[in-house]
Amino acid sequence: AARAAGIQALDGPFLDIADEPGLVTSARLARELGFDGKWAIHPRQLALIARAMAPSAAERAEAEAVMAALAGGVGVAVLDGRMIDEVHRKRAERVLALVTDPEQTVQAESVPSSEGAATAAAARPRRAPQTTSVVAPYADDLEVGQVFVAPGVTLDSGLATLHRAACGDRLPLALDAPLFERVTGQPGILAHPALVADVVIGQSTAPSGRVLGNLFYRGFALAPVALGTTLRTTTEVLALAPTKDRTKAKVTLRATTVDEHGRTVASFLRCPLLPANAPVTARGEVPDVPLAIELPDWDLDAHPGGGELVPGDLFEVEAHETVTLAPELARATLNLAMTHTDAEAGAHGRRLVYGGQVIGIGLAHATRALPGLATVLAWRSCDHLGPVFEEDRLRTDVEVLAVDGALVDLRVTVTSGRGPVLDWQPVVVCAS
Questions:
Q1: 112 vs 409: CA distance, rounded Å
Q2: Which of 41, 101, 291, 350 has the most CB atoms in a 10 Å sphere around its CB?
Q3: Which value, to the nearest 10 degrees, does the dihedral of the CA atoms of residues 339, 342, 343, 348 take?
Q4: Which of 9, 36, 43 is nearest to 123 (CA)?
Q5: pTM over 0.90
Q6: 361 with 169: CB under 8 angstroms?
């Protein structure tokens, strides 16, 4: 059956590992019967099986002569006074395929057991140990068109709880499952849009582990998803622009996120500032990213209302938020930027708070001002104006820029004791 299928035929294992003569006899018999190899259940059996299955010098010489006589597509030939044909050629191929140097290579197949695992490892030639440095790239290590693929992340209640603890939020659809079902017509609960953004940004940080600061986000489109959704993000290098002293470069990245069904969840540009080991030549282009914002088919009458909003409305949120859980949130969302977890990795001699947490705190303040806020669909822009550190106290102003039915353009400005740190312009869905 193995010959008909064109696959190797392997004899079963010889179970008495102490009986070496018996193993050799069994292996030789298997070879005479036409088997290509034999299973081993212990590393000590490997060399014995290999030697028993290996062809002799005479057998190999005969096989080489058969192959030579039938070379060039000859179907039938005479060799040493006997007729040979396709059957002899196939037999010769099998002989030449057998191991001839059992000290270098062993043909064996392991049974599924812990001993079998050791057998498989022993059957492979071992390379010499080596030391590999696992490092984040500098700006000059990156190339336009380079693509990074991150591990997928399934949004779960643990992530949602950590995010709420780090940012403090009152977004109704991310807190109230029955309300989510009444508004959306779907069971489950909303994955907080700031949490989704944190994860997809974290997934995009493989090329920016050495980031000194993220300068901006542009064209950030964000589809509402429920907890339980799996996010998968790819990140492409679009452009590099050196600073005047050429010791750093602005790197424009495009990230695209899909769910487990391949539907687009997020897409955006972001621009980390990276150090350079060597001068960087300006290359690539930063494209325009027009936003296509689509209002979800929700029953907003079932959502708590927040009253009428008009452009120019300004909400000054009194409460300050003290930044905590910063490295924990960065780690949980796969953020590889070393400056968020290592005080010596950044330019400030202190751990830099991840910008997504500042956005999350600003959005949490916005939900206090706007109880009808249902979700965030897009960011028209996002500029980080200054560094934020753990234990900083943040406060927020929320301004209404435009109103188009349930779609509302906001400007969220976050300030620390040192001055403005965030200018964020999201497009949100609001129930009136």
A1: 61
A2: 41
A3: -10
A4: 43
A5: no
A6: no
Per-residue pLDDT of the chain (432 residues; tens, 9 = 90+): 666 666 778 888 888 888 888 898 988 888 888 787 888 888 888 888 888 888 878 888 888 888 888 887 777 777 887 888 877 877 788 777 765 555 544 444 444 444 444 444 445 578 789 999 999 999 999 999 999 999 999 999 999 999 999 999 899 999 999 999 999 999 999 999 999 999 999 999 999 999 998 888 999 999 999 999 999 999 999 999 999 998 999 999 999 999 999 999 999 999 999 999 999 999 999 999 888 899 999 999 999 998 999 999 999 999 999 999 999 999 999 999 999 999 998 788 999 999 999 999 999 999 999 999 999 999 999 999 999 999 999 999 999 999 999 999 999 999 999 999 999 999 999 998
Answer yes or no: are the C-beta atoms of 119 and 48 closer than 8 Å.
no
| Burial (CB count within 10 angstroms: exposed 0-12, middle 13-18, buried 19+), residue 33 | exposed
Taking the C-alpha atoms of residue 224 and residue 424, their distance in angstroms, rounded to an integer, is 19
Please tell me whether residue 325 adopts helix, strand or coil conformation: coil
* Residue 136 in tokens: 């984040």
DSSP secondary structure letter of residue 289: -
d(CA 363, CA 7): 62
Q: Show the beta-strand stretches assigned E in 171-229.
A: 213-222
C-alpha 380/C-alpha 6 separation (Å) is 60
Residue in the structure block whose two tokens are 């030449």: 96
Nearest to 242 by CA among 277, 279, 205: 279
As a whole number of angstroms, the distance between CA 254 and CA 269 comes to 5
In sequence order, what are the residues at sequence separation of 6 or more whose Cβ sits closer than 8 angstroms to the Cβ of residue 131? none
Long-range CB pairs of 253-261 (<8 Å, 24+ gap) are: 253/204, 253/207, 253/208, 255/200, 255/201, 255/203, 255/204, 257/200, 257/203, 257/231, 257/232, 257/233, 258/231, 258/232, 259/225, 259/229, 259/230, 259/231, 259/232, 260/152, 260/229, 260/230, 260/232
The residue written with tokens 């300006």 in the block is 282
Across 393-409, b (16+ Cβ under 10 Å) vs e yields ebbbbbbbeebeebbbb
Residues in a beta bridge with 7: none
The number of beta carbons lying within 10 Å of the beta carbon of residue 77 is 16
- As given in the structure block, the two tokens for residue 109 are 């197949």
Do 397 and 306 form a contact (C-beta atoms < 8 A)? Answer: no
The 3-state DSSP composition of the chain as helix, strand, coil percent (nearest 5) reads 30, 30, 40
